[in-house]
């Protein structure tokens, strides 16, 4: 049991990300790649994700303003978005991406728009949760690990 | 640009150099590679590229990445050699399927993994028809990667 109150709160926050279905086991993979040489790896990758995916979101928004919908293009954008979302373990965002792509495949424009609205909500919610999580993680400081012989 | 990274024993120093490589082995699936393996990643998405690179580097694999199909072809055509190529389907300039075909036409022999956001069985079949060895739905996971690294290490 974590004695440090900030670390305890951090652990609770982390657990809720999983319990609420926002992230999946891939997020654990990110954490396992973080170490003394890359102490902020998880936050850096998540920041990178939100930076790059913003462009894809914009592309999709613009594509959804053009009628008739180019479902091929929409699917291609979402293919990329789904790939990067799944790579950081963004579970709900990934699920909505899959739904969107199914709508593209069936030529369901209304479905695409509904799904995209939901996707943006999940994307924004997760961003907020990550923001709070990493802010607390910075306060908590790095976890001490055994030093290795040189 | 010619880029051939020689195969050889990964030294003990190399194993310690990545500030905690040994710690990662305690958490990740433990394997010890005898050879210095090299990998090329072809993915237009930076997030995926960074993660795959870090995952491979955590096992001591030397990595090189390009973000479009044309650069991948140019690299292979200039006699760059890799043990492993990881390729996404949707790429700028040339798509992953076409890149895979051209790599085979050039005569490059190495393990090729399609690692892509899954679009359906037809995508899997299309990639496998281009001589990709393994098709993996993103994200690249250890259950697929570790046996492949072991196999490459034995060769």
From TrEMBL, chain A:
- This one is known as Histidine-containing phosphotransfer protein
Q: Where is the HPt domain?
A: 44-127
Q: Give start-end of the signal peptide.
A: none
Membrane-spanning intervals of the chain:
none
Q: Which organism is it from?
A: Gossypium tomentosum
- For the keyword Transcription regulation, the answer is no
Annotated domain remarks: Histidine-containing phosphotransfer domain (HPt) contains an active histidine that mediates the phosphotransfer.
Q: Where in the cell is it found?
A: Cytoplasm, Cytosol; Nucleus
Output the PANTHER family linked to this UniProt entry.
HISTIDINE-CONTAINING PHOSPHOTRANSFER PROTEIN 4 (PTHR28242:SF43), PHOSPHORELAY INTERMEDIATE PROTEIN YPD1 (PTHR28242)
The UniProt entry lists the main location of this chain as cytoplasm
Which GO MF term does the entry hold, naming one? protein histidine kinase binding
Pfam families (UniProt xref): Hpt (PF01627)
TrEMBL record, chain B:
Q: Which InterPro entries match?
A: CheY-like_superfamily, Sig_transdc_resp-reg_receiver, ST_Response_Regulator
Looking at the record, the residues that make up the Response regulatory domain are 38-153
Q: Which residues form the signal peptide?
A: none
User: Its domain of life?
Assistant: Eukaryota
Output the SMART domains linked to this UniProt entry. Answer: REC
| Family annotation (Pfam families) | Response_reg (PF00072)
Biological processes, Gene Ontology terms? phosphorelay signal transduction system
What's the protein called, per UniProt?
Answer: Response regulatory domain-containing protein
Q: Which organism is it from?
A: Gossypium darwinii (Darwin's cotton)
Q: What is the lineage of its organism?
A: Eukaryota, Viridiplantae, Streptophyta, Embryophyta, Tracheophyta
